[in-house]
Amino acid sequence: xxxxxxxxxxxxxxxxxxxxxxxxxxxxxxxxxxxxxxxxxxxxxxxxxxxxxxxxxxxxxxxxxxxxxxxxxxxxxxxxxxxxxxxxxxxxxxxxxxxxxxxxxxxxxxxxxxxxxxxxxxxxxxxxxxxxxxxxxxxxxxxxxxxxxxxxxxxxxxxxxxxxxxxxxxxxxxxxxxxxxxxxxxxxxxxxxxxxxxxxxxxxxxxxxxxxxxxxxxxxxxxxxxxxxxxxxxxxxxxxxxxxxxxxxxxxxxxxxxxxxxxxxxxxxxxxxxxxxxxx
Length: 280
Known about the structure:
Largest sheet: 2 strands, antiparallel
Distance between the termini: 13 Å
Strand order of the largest sheet: 1-2
Strand content: under 5%
Radius of gyration: 20 Å
Number of strands: 4
Structural class: mainly alpha
Helix content: 55-70%
Shape: globular
């Protein structure tokens, strides 16, 4: 997310049309394959990479919409930022996969037996996590979501900042020290741990931060990020539900109550997850 420049609406960029066509075409193939398994080899091949194709199509479309609203976007005027976000997104998600190796909250089904294809599909999907959520938050900010949302000014003391940092360290290390049978219940600590750890450090360094926004009484960024996390969570889960290659949750929360594949209690975590991505 970047500060809003003066609004200068222009034409809808071509890459947004391409993205929308990619998104619609991928969903059409995935829906057909989901309800008619084995009927079309082409639809099945597309369904194997539904997550990556849908997210790249979505990214192109949302980025073009942002460019239309603001006169600039990640792919039109800030490409260097985009090429930083893509590898960083892969690294960030691999960190969570490492946590999941111990905590076992999800696993993958239908993955390719060919290592190269499996790695390419995973990296293509992982690369969209960070730009997908942050671009959605930027779009929400551009359309004026919660623009007038304010809070009392909160000047966090150095003691509060240190407390948050140490709380973050605890949240990120405690689950790894627990047996797997206990750790699987503690993923919420991981979702919030990097917020507590990194956001105060970002604030201290002068970088954009939620801490800094509270010090100014501003809540729009926090609200846009939270809403973006929930919206992206809905896209993730709906597209994953249709895909031939998908993740399946083993999280022991609200069994029998889920949104697509995601248990309801876990779905609520998409909001704080967006704060975490912003802090990272």
